[in-house]
Design a protein that fits this description.
The mean pLDDT is about 95. The radius of gyration is 26 Å and the shape is flat. The strands form 5 sheets. The protein has a 12-stranded mixed sheet. About 35% of the residues are buried. The longest helix is centred in the C-terminal third of the chain and has 28 residues, at about 315-340. It is α/β, with parallel strands linked by helices and about 350 residues long.
């Protein structure tokens, strides 16, 4: 594509340089060919930009203005406020999703009482149990299972080995990656004389539209109430969400997050890697919790916290800086005590 054609994919960008420059791909700065497009949106990546062979760049106005005229003359620039967003649009344009042919593989096992839309793609060894509903253009890859009376909304994708337990509900455009389990029993037991009595888990797991669940993650069904994942929420690999939990819209849960049962999480919340939450607590809207934090009490909306227990981020950073000085403080204290004695 010529540069003039590329810029039409993100019309909010301004093209600076040779509009007839031919672009043949996209790439990372360190390995890109001269005719590939790269992007830069932060000054800390300027060194990689300078060393890169790429002659075509999606760039922020601030960084573009900081360049010398010689550099501006040598390369082609697509100047936009959100370079990463524009780069993603370009990649999606150049590498569109593979079209799946509708149909049911001969090895699939479909209950006579299940509904499978004729536009769906059902791969090898897929199982769809009684009363289940598979919506339009759903793709079920090899070995996926949808349990009794479960529902999978239109344009959703279930990758290999996904397990959707009975009565679970997936909205439109869900993406469930390999090995994920939706709607398994919550972890509920009570002591009963010499054994543990299992608490029945009769709620459901409900995922609203545009939810993505990473590989080998698990979302438990509710005990009596439902476990609910809000629209647009993205869940990384190896995440555990306990029974009766309620997640809001557009949340991000990074790898190894553990959400205990009966946790309520607001909208636009970020839980970084290895965050763990205590059950029966609330995290407010727009909150960000730093990696490896242990959350044991409610967190108000619009907070940025980290640590165990979580502390406001500025306080946490000051404490970490102080901890680095403790060995020297200790040595000075010992010396003072020796001088006193």
């Amino acid at each position: 594509m010529k540069a003039s054609e590329v810029v039409s994919i993100f019309p909010d960008a301004n093209l600076v340089g040779d509009k007839n420059f031919v672009i043949k791909g996209v790439g990372a700065a360190a390995t890109a060919a001269s005719d590939s497009v790269c992007f830069i949106e932060a000054e800390k990546y300027l060194e990689g930009f300078k060393k890169s062979a790429s002659r075509a760049w999606i760039i922020s106005p601030k960084i573009f203005e900081s360049l010398d005229q010689k550099t501006k003359d040598e390369r082609v620039f697509f100047v936009t406020e959100k370079p990463y967003n524009s780069f993603v649009k370009l990649v999606n344009h150049l590498f569109p999703a593979k079209k799946i042919t509708p149909g049911i593989h001969s090895s699939a096992v479909i209950s006579p009482s299940a509904h499978v839309d004729p536009t769906a793609h059902i791969g090898p060894h897929v199982i769809v149990d009684a009363g289940a509903h598979i919506g339009p253009r759903v793709v079920m890859h090899a070995g996926a299972w949808v349990g009794e009376s479960a529902k999978v909304g239109e344009d959703s994708i279930l990758y290999g080995g996904v397990k959707i337990y009975h009565e679970s509900i997936l909205g439109k455009r869900n993406i469930i990656h390999a090995g994920a389990v939706i709607g398994s029993d919550g972890f509920g037991f009570i002591p009963d004389k010499t054994s543990l009595l299992k608490i029945p888990q009769i709620g459901r797991a409900i995922l609203h539209d545009d939810v993505e669940v990473g590989a080998n993650s698990t979302i438990d069904r509710g005990t009596i109430e439902d476990t609910v994942i809000g629209r647009g929420t993205k869940i990384d690999n190896l995440v555990q969400i306990g029974h009766n939990s309620k997640l809001g819209e557009n949340c991000i849960l990074c790898a190894f997050v553990g959400v205990s049962g009966n946790t309520t999480i607001g909208n636009n919340v970020l839980l970084a890697g290895q965050v763990g939450t205590k059950g029966h607590m609330k995290i407010g809207d727009n909150t960000q919790i730093g990696a490896q934090s242990g959350v044991s009490k409610d967190i108000p909306a619009n907070s940025k916290v980290k640590g165990y227990p979580p502390q406001p981020l500025p306080e946490y950073l000051r404490l970490q800086a102080l901890i680095q000085k403790l060995p020297e403080i200790y040595r000075r204290l010992v010396k003072l005590e020796e001088e006193k004695s």
